[in-house]
Every structure is written in structure tokens, then in C-alpha cells.
Specification:
Elements lengths: L8 E4 L8 H15 L6 H16 L6 H16 L5 H4 L1 H5 L9 H9 L3 E6 L3 H11 L5 E4 H4 L6 H11 L6 E5 L2 H10 L3 E5 L20 E3 L2 H9 L2
Parallel strand pairs: 1-2, 1-4, 2-3, 4-5, 5-6
Helix pairs in contact: 2-3, 6-11
GO molecular function, one term: (S)-2-haloacid dehalogenase activity
Keywords: Hydrolase
Protein name: Haloacid dehalogenase, type II
Length: about 230
């Protein structure tokens, strides 16, 4: 079991960990696809989204808004339709309406009493600012892909975060839902990690990646993590 007393800062992935990105993406893409006579189930949409996004983020850096526009364009290529300008912007424009998971805000407020809180997110500064309002806590540092000019799982994003946090690695605990984007890289750099496995009770494809490198702790949600941290 992790000794939470050794940590001074918790670094968080945002979308999928704190913010319900699946419902956000589905809310934008499902009506768009249906408008073009493309009826896919939720896991098919999320799997394709993850595939297209990962491919784009491996290339030369472009802003996340452009990544999302190109993802929509790739859905069009895959299923034989040409998205309108409004449709190309639909996912990015919807981010301002994406909400935290039901347990997120209360858990963050509890954790804020004990730790410095830091965001490491594959997003643009302006897009995260929308989400920050929903999260209702003040983060000590916010590191975005726009600042790093790269996307997780790149080491670069974590190096920038560690530099900004300015604490020994053994005092930083990284918390994330994506094994692919976060857990593997964080562990490789010597960080302790908590896998928030919000899809544990869901059937179908594991959108967040297989657990190739084991986290130090697995929890089903942030409420559970906050409860563990509050124990003496």
C-alpha cells in the first residue's frame, strides 16, 4: 500500500480522470455521425477516436483544437462524408460543457487540504480554462500540451511538470485514468502512480490502454483515493 504521508504534490491527468471525457466525446460525435447516416455503438466511437487521436499526437506538434478537427475529418474519411466547418469544430467547442465525474469536485477539495494539486493535460490552455471552472479548486500548477509543445505519453510533458513542481520525485504522486498516456511514462520516470480505473465495470475495449506497467495503486474513482489519503 502507498504511504500517502510521503507525498507533497498530486499530479493529475484531467480528461478521463477528473472530467467525463467519454460522455463529452460521445455527446459531440454521436449526433454528428447519425446526421451522416453512420450508426456506431459507444465503444466503436471511442475506440476510433482514441486511434485517430493517438496517431495525430505522435506527429509534429499541432494545437489540440487542430487535433480534434482532424479527428472529425478522419471519421468523415472512414465513413464517406465531408464534415462542415461547424462539425469539424464540434468536439473542441463542446469541451466547455464537459462536466466532472460526480465524485471529482468533492474529492479534489479534500485532497487540496493535504497536497499541492497539479494538472498535466493533453489540451490547449484556453480549452482547459473552461474545465477549470467546473473543477472548483485552485491548482498549484497547470501544465498543458500547448506549453510542452508535445503530447503525453511523451517524456517531455512530465519533465516540464516535474521541473515546475520542483519537488523530489519521491514526493510526487501521479494520478491518471490512462495507462497508455500516463501510467507507463510516469512509472518510467520514477514517479509513483495511481490508476483511476473508471472503466473497470465496463465491457468492451479498454480505451485507456492495457496495464503493461503496473501502477502502485488502482482505485475505481477519485472518491476512493481521497478516502485512502484521509486515513491516518
Amino acid at each position: 500500500m502507498i504511504n500517502f504521508k510521503q507525498y507533497k504534490a498530486l499530479t493529475f491527468d484531467c480528461y478521463g480522470t477528473l472530467i467525463d471525457w467519454e460522455n463529452g466525446i460521445l455527446g459531440a460525435l454521436k449526433p454528428l455521425l447519425l446526421a451522416h447516416n453512420t450508426d456506431l455503438d459507444d465503444d466503436q466511437i471511442l475506440e476510433l477516436f482514441a486511434e485517430f487521436e493517438a496517431e495525430l499526437e505522435k506527429g509534429d506538434y499541432i494545437k489540440y483544437r487542430e487535433v480534434l478537427k482532424t479527428v472529425v475529418d478522419k471519421f468523415g474519411e472512414q465513413f464517406g462524408f465531408e464534415p462542415t466547418v461547424k462539425e469539424l469544430n464540434s468536439i473542441a467547442d463542446s469541451i466547455q460543457h464537459w462536466l466532472p465525474f460526480p465524485d471529482t469536485v468533492e474529492a479534489l477539495k479534500m485532497l487540496k487540504q493535504k497536497f499541492r494539486l497539479v494538472i498535466i493535460s493533453n489540451v490547449d490552455d484556453d480549452l482547459f480554462s473552461f474545465s477549470a471552472k467546473h473543477l472548483e479548486v485552485e491548482f498549484d500548477q497547470i501544465i498543458t500540451a500547448e506549453q510542452a509543445k508535445s503530447y503525453k505519453p511523451s517524456l517531455n510533458n512530465f519533465k516540464l511538470a516535474i521541473e515546475r513542481v520542483d519537488l523530489p520525485l519521491e514526493q510526487i504522486l501521479h494520478v491518471a485514468a490512462s495507462v497508455y498516456h500516463d501510467i507507463v511514462t510516469a512509472k518510467s520516470m520514477g514517479l509513483s502512480t495511481v490508476w483511476v480505473n473508471r472503466r473497470a465495470d465496463k465491457q468492451g475495449v479498454n480505451i485507456t490502454g492495457a496495464a503493461v506497467r503496473q501502477p502502485d495503486l488502482e482505485v475505481p474513482d477519485l472518491k476512493t483515493l481521497a478516502a485512502l489519503c484521509s486515513q491516518k
